[in-house]
């Protein structure tokens, strides 16, 4: 009798961390910079202007926020990945969870 194996894609979907829960667990300044950049489709400089911050402060907050998210993702979804620059894991998850930006046809 053949055994059935779990589909690795389905398993990955089941284990996908809930980014909204993770985002809400961040301090308010980190939430603001994530929302301004990723959901607002802004660069760090644009987000800084939008939030009334210096570009250096915005970049530092974004770095720390992504570092925190990366740690949460690695805790919730361990894998064989090599240690990476802060935020790479979180960025990969964000890309899977956030709809792509639509660009105007030229």
Automatic annotation (TrEMBL):
<dbReference type="GO" id="GO:0006352">
    <property type="term" value="P:DNA-templated transcription initiation"/>
</dbReference>
<feature type="domain" description="RNA polymerase sigma factor 70 region 4 type 2">
    <location>
        <begin position="21"/>
        <end position="69"/>
    </location>
</feature>
<keyword id="KW-0731">Sigma factor</keyword>
<dbReference type="GO" id="GO:0016987">
    <property type="term" value="F:sigma factor activity"/>
</dbReference>
<dbReference type="InterPro" id="IPR013324">
    <property type="entry name" value="RNA_pol_sigma_r3/r4-like"/>
</dbReference>
<keyword id="KW-0805">Transcription regulation</keyword>
<keyword id="KW-0804">Transcription</keyword>
<dbReference type="Pfam" id="PF08281">
    <property type="entry name" value="Sigma70_r4_2"/>
</dbReference>
<dbReference type="InterPro" id="IPR036388">
    <property type="entry name" value="WH-like_DNA-bd_sf"/>
</dbReference>
<dbReference type="GO" id="GO:0003677">
    <property type="term" value="F:DNA binding"/>
</dbReference>
<protein>
    <recommendedName>
        <fullName>RNA polymerase sigma factor 70 region 4 type 2 domain-containing protein</fullName>
    </recommendedName>
</protein>
<dbReference type="InterPro" id="IPR013249">
    <property type="entry name" value="RNA_pol_sigma70_r4_t2"/>
</dbReference>
<comment type="similarity">
    <text>Belongs to the sigma-70 factor family. ECF subfamily.</text>
</comment>
């Amino acid at each position: 009798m053949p055994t059935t194996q779990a589909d690795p894609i389905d398993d990955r979907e089941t284990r996908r961390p809930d980014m909204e829960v993770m985002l809400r667990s961040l301090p308010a300044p980190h939430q603001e910079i994530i929302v301004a950049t990723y959901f607002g489709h802004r660069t760090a400089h644009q987000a800084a202007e939008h939030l009334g911050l210096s570009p250096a402060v915005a970049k530092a907050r974004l770095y720390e926020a992504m570092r925190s998210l990366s740690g949460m993702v690695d805790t919730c979804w361990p894998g064989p990945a090599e240690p990476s620059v802060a935020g790479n894991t979180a960025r990969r998850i964000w890309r899977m969870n956030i709809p792509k930006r639509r660009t105007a046809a030229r």
